[in-house]
Write a structure and sequence with these properties.
By secondary structure, the chain is of the alpha+beta class. It folds into five domains: 212 residues, no CATH class; 47 residues, no CATH class; 97 residues, no CATH class; 95 residues, no CATH class; 127 residues, no CATH class. The protein is built from 23 helices and 20 strands. The strands form seven sheets. Strands 6-7-11-14 form a four-stranded antiparallel β-sheet. Strands 1-8-9 form a three-stranded antiparallel β-sheet, with no helix packed on it. The radius of gyration is 31 Å and the shape is globular.
Length: 616
């Protein structure tokens, strides 16, 4: 196909050509929420939660019969099938029914957060085949966008036009499935299904750009727009010329969700091997487990884990797998894990409800990445037995944490909770509690499963205050010494923050002035008029203040009066106006929807600035 995605010259011109990071056409970067959440149901029976029944006219019923018999109305027929619409005649009355399938996932996660993920469709909820089509469409989108270059200034990858033109032939080729009318019809129905399904998330769907989770007020649709070629033959193949009957790949197109594409742009993705996904693995369960393992097989420092440990309930939600008893989870997943072992993705797995670890059964699975099940089991059990030695080592090697967000992540605190903690507590309290928590954890003979939740509780309820001072004195002394040491450079840091903030504001205002000149002039005139109106009262108030304030506070008043007097003469050329106008613009641009001109208050800027320093 000659044209799949049109060039966006403005975006491409902004790319820093010196940056070597590129997503090439052979890559498959999969957005992490798709891996982490149950967007597609594997093995779930179709359940009609809220069917709607509507009485219709005989004319409407006859139109439906015409759709069934007319080969030219294939798209309309496919839409009816995809949405599970039925037309019924009973006792001379005609009815139309809609499926309206719905599923709700709701629970408290391991970090003590109440989370919810609701899937609601005008027809059927996306399942295994929709999952395969979605992945193949992402692959085509990357292929026809490539090379996708990284823009250092925007700190993201830059896509060209986000509308993807494609043919069902090339989609089937990627999916390694049969080519032909029947397959293409199923693909079209899958796209219709995805476009008619809404996802509502609370505390689950992560947005990388804003570093926040979606709330219940936001909806996600995987495919927000689509269109199929208008002319088909009887086999469902696209035809470019109606008179000659010549076949072509056509002009089908789709537009992915902005939220999904934004996350890929801002590097919230994991590379997936397309050959393993479509050629070596067959079922949706195998393929989703493969994605999940790829996502979780390394730690924050990119070191590969020896094993991945998950509760059945956690993994059951992520994939998803529906089960009531532990043996049901094993029965439904063991064949998929065997296939992953055959392919070489994992070494083995241990279902802990039937194979006890350290003599105890549990509703969890150990996915072995480096060694077989027996060797991995021995390593885990020795790790627990030797924990006292680890505790002694930790007690003798206490040190001040250098990267607070990373330390909190390793403890198990969620990203949104880390943000909340860093806003609520000062740096030194967080450091103190991180050191305290490490000490407490090192003394435990058993692994702490809910480290994030325990840490939040410990700092929230001031656990250290309830401890004998002798037990935490060394920690408190170390933190106090570090605080004194760092205070010497704090003033220099504040100066740098002030300079950076002023530069940030100046850049935003300059962009606003160039790209929104009309709005800029309105604010300019409004500020000038307001100052002229209030200047007399302002001057009188300052003069009154001089009469009642102490001498050491009068100097600032006198300086401001001097600026006001100059404003009376110089008007918009005066420093008084420039300062007032700048302050007005900062506040005005805080509510801007265009991120290029959106400002923030100094405290928020300071918090973000210090956070970046911590991460370095």
């Amino acid at each position: 196909m000659e044209e799949h995605i049109e060039e966006n010259s403005l975006d491409l011109a902004l790319v820093d050509q010196d940056d070597k990071r590129v997503i090439d056409e052979d890559s498959l970067p999969m957005e992490l929420n798709i891996i982490d959440q149950p967007f597609f149901l594997h093995g779930y029976r179709r359940v009609t939660k809220n069917p709607s029944i509507k009485e219709i006219t005989a004319s409407e019923y006859n139109k439906y019969l015409d759709v069934l018999d007319n080969p030219k109305k294939i798209f309309e027929r496919e839409r009816i099938e995809a949405l599970g619409i039925e037309y019924i005649q009973k006792d001379g009355i005609y009815y139309k029914t809609n499926v309206n399938e719905e599923t709700l996932f709701e629970y408290s996660d391991s970090k003590n957060n109440d989370v919810m993920f609701k899937i609601s469709s005008a027809g059927y909820i996306p399942r295994e085949f929709e999952f395969f089509v979605f992945v193949a469409l992402i692959k085509l989108f990357i292929k026809y966008n490539s090379p996708i270059k990284f823009d250092n200034k925007k700190n993201k990858y830059v896509f060209r036009k986000k509308r993807l033109y494609f043919s069902f032939y090339e989609l089937a080729k990627i999916m390694n499935t049969t080519r032909g009318g029947k397959t293409y019809r199923e693909m079209r129905k899958s796209i219709i299904t995805m476009a008619n399904t809404k996802y509502i998330s609370n505390g689950i769907f992560y947005q990388k750009e804003s570093e926040s989770y979606l709330t219940e007020t936001s909806e996600i649709v995987l495919i927000q727009e689509f269109k199929f070629s208008s002319i088909l033959d009887n086999e469902g193949m696209e035809i470019s010329d109606k008179s000659s009957g010549k076949k072509t790949r056509g002009r089908n197109y789709i537009v992915f969700s902005d939220k999904i594409l934004s996350n890929i742009e801002f590097q919230y993705f994991k590379y997936i091997d397309i050959d393993i996904f479509f050629n070596k693995l067959k079922t949706g369960l195998e393929r989703k487990l493969y994605m999940y393992i790829e996502r979780n097989k390394r730690d924050k420092n990119r070191k590969k884990h020896v094993y991945i440990e998950r509760k059945y309930s956690t993994l059951g939600y992520k994939i998803p797998v529906i089960f009531d008893k532990d043996y049901e989870f094993k029965a439904k997943t063991s064949r998929a894990f065997d296939r992953l072992k055959e392919v070489g993705i994992i070494k083995d797995c241990i279902f802990c409800h039937s194979t006890p670890i350290n003599g105890k059964k549990a509703s969890k699975i150990i996915i072995c990445l480096e060694y077989d099940a027996e060797t991995t089991k021995n390593l885990i059990e020795n790790e627990i037995v030797d924990n006292e030695e680890v505790a002694t080592t930790v007690l003798n090697q206490l040190e001040i944490p250098k990267n607070i967000p990373m330390e909190l992540q390793q403890i198990g605190v969620t990203d949104n909770m880390i943000t909340a903690l860093m806003k609520e507590y000062d740096k030194w309290k967080l450091i103190t509690y991180i050191m305290y928590f490490k000490r407490v954890r090192s003394k435990q003979k058993k692994k702490i499963d809910n480290g994030g939740g325990l840490f939040v509780d410990s700092i929230k309820y001031d656990f250290i205050d309830s401890q004998p001072k002798s037990k935490v004195k060394d920690i408190l002394d170390m933190v106090e010494a570090e605080k004194i040491k760092e205070s010497k450079t704090e003033s220099d840091k504040l100066i740098k923050i002030e300079e950076s903030y002023n530069k940030f504001i100046d850049e935003k205002i300059e962009i606003f002035k160039k790209e929104y000149s009309f709005e800029y002039q309105i604010e300019y005139n409004k500020t000038l008029a307001q100052l002229r109106k209030n200047i007399k009262n302002k001057k009188e108030n300052l003069k009154q203040s001089l009469l009642i304030l102490e001498d050491d506070k009068c100097e600032n008043i006198k300086n401001e009066l001097e600026l006001i007097n100059k404003f009376t003469e110089e008007q918009e050329k005066s420093e008084y106006f420039k300062k007032a106008f700048r302050s007005e613009l900062i506040v005005y641009l805080m509510t801007a929807t265009d991120k290029k001109i959106k400002t923030m208050d100094k405290e928020t800027f300071k918090y973000n600035y210090l956070k970046k320093l911590e991460e370095k």
